[in-house]
């Protein structure tokens, strides 16, 4: 079977809600990573066959074909097509899958998989009206309501259900959250993120400066400070401190065929080894990465012990903790540079963001195999296994 390769990958540093990156129009934010991932690859812009752009809240400034608008705002030729996709939090991980599938099928040779989200300018929920019961204007149809009358589909409910099912205490969740901040701070301070981050100019009270560090990392976080936060629901365990941070950001990954490698003299960062997507219970919703990982490893003929590094999106602390319990994975290999609890979760941009961090971390450590997975709305999960080259 033809292979698919990653030849460049970049991301912006995350911006907290209504903070440093708020001045960037999301189209321009996405355009910036398209230009940078192209520049880093060394390939001519007119050789790009397609752009696949992940975005969850496709409304307002992210509406009216976000992906195409990003191409038009970028330095890419207007002849480069684009498509915008929504697989909820896994949108740009799915963009990588679609790009790899296009390349492996022989239909295309050079595809950019990207994603972006300005959660400051286009808040969550901008695209739909949520209701406990089917109503005009609600995405919950009478047919869905008849099958699932007992509850709305809520990621917060799902996170609490996972914590209960896998017996995670509030202390367990807070300890994991603190570790995320500590690992992210260590990665930032060591320069581990320098190779992957695209500096962008931002407005500050003193003028303009380059935004080069993830804004959500809390250097002063302690178990006491995280433990002092109120739970999101009375009697629950999930708080703003042990959940992912609202974030503005963008990321892009260039995927090419072996033919393109040779024709353009490109040097690959990684080879895409396995692509899996599965779906399960839409109520508990966030547990599917556990079972998607099982399937991906079976298909790849691998065990979890074969994988050197894992990126499991920290949408809520119970998700990676349950994933560790289910898979028996080594916690020292999980989210080694911190995760979304510290670095932020820019929804449609997170899949490409995690892959960017994963391939750079593998290369920096001289390791071979990486696995990425994330929970997605509706009980879906993507898994991608890559081999660093």
How would you describe this protein?
This protein has 389 residues and is α+β, with helices and mostly antiparallel strands. The protein is 34% helix and 21% strand. The chain has 12 helices and 12 strands. The chain has helices at 26-41, 66-73, 91-105, 142-147, 155-165, 170-190, 223-227, 258-264, 288-300, 318-327, 340-343, 350-365, and strands spanning 4-11, 15-16, 50-54, 82-85, 110-118, 200-204, 207-211, 247-257, 270-279, 309-312, 369-376, 380-388. Strands 1, 2, 3, 4, 5, 8, 9, 10, 11 and 12 form a 10-stranded mixed beta sheet that branches. Strands 6-7 form a two-stranded antiparallel ribbon. Strand 11 (369-376) and strand 12 (380-388) form a beta hairpin. Helix 3 (91-105) crosses helix 12 (350-365). The longest helix has 21 residues, at 170-190. The protein is globular. The model has no long low-confidence stretch (mean pLDDT 95).
Average of per-residue pLDDT values: 95
Question: How many runs of DSSP E, i.e. beta strands?
Answer: 12
Largest sheet descriptor: 10 strands, mixed
Structural class: alpha+beta
| Run of helices and strands | EEHEHEHEHHHEEHEHEHEHHHEE
Number of helices: 12
How far is the N terminus from the C terminus? 18 Å
Beta-strand fraction estimate: 15-25%
**What general outline do the C-alpha atoms trace?**
globular
GO molecular function, one term: acetyl-CoA C-acyltransferase activity
Organism: Seohaeicola zhoushanensis
Keywords: Acyltransferase, Transferase
Protein name: Acetyl-CoA acetyltransferase
């Amino acid at each position: 079977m033809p292979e698919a390769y990653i030849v460049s990958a970049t991301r912006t540093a995350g911006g907290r809600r209504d903070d440093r990156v708020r001045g960037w129009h999301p189209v321009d934010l996405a355009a910036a990573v398209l230009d940078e991932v192209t520049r880093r690859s060394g390939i001519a812009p007119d050789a790009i066959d397609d752009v696949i752009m992940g975005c969850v809240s496709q409304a307002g400034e992210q509406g009216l074909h976000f992906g195409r608008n990003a191409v038009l705002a970028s330095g890419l030729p207007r002849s480069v097509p684009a498509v915008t996709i929504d697989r909820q939090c896994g949108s740009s991980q799915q963009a990588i899958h679609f790009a790899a599938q296009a390349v492996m099928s022989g239909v295309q040779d050079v595809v950019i998989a990207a994603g972006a989200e300005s959660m400051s300018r286009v808040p969550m929920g901008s695209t739909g009206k949520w209701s406990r019961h089917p109503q005009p204007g609600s995405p919950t149809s009478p047919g869905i309501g008849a099958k699932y009358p007992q509850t709305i589909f809520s990621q917060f409910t799902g996170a609490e259900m996972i914590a209960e099912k896998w017996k995670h205490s509030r202390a367990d969740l807070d300890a994991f959250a603190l570790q995320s901040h500590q690992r992210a701070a260590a990665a930032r301070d060591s320069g581990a993120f320098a190779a992957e981050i695209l500096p962008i100019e931002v407005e500050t009270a003193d003028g303009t400066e380059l935004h080069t560090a993830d804004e959500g990392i809390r250097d002063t976080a302690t178990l006491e400070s995280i433990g002092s936060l109120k739970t999101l629901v009375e009697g629950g365990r999930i708080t703003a401190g042990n959940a992912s941070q609202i974030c503005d950001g963008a990321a892009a990954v260039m995927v090419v065929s072996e033919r393109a490698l040779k024709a353009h003299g490109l040097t690959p960062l990684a080879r895409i080894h396995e692509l899996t997507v599965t779906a399960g219970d839409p109520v508990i919703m966030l547990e599917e990465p556990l079972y998607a990982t099982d399937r991906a490893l079976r298909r790849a003929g691998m065990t979890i012990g074969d994988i050197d590094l894992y990126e499991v999106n920290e949408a809520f602390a119970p998700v990676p903790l349950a994933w560790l319990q289910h898979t028996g994975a080594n916690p020292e290999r999980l989210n080694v540079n911190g995760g979304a609890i510290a670095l932020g979760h820019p929804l449609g941009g997170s899949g490409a963001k995690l892959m960017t961090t994963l391939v750079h971390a593998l290369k920096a450590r001289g390791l071979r195999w990486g696995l990425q997975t994330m929970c997605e709305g509706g009980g879906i999960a993507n898994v991608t296994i890559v081999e660093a080259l």
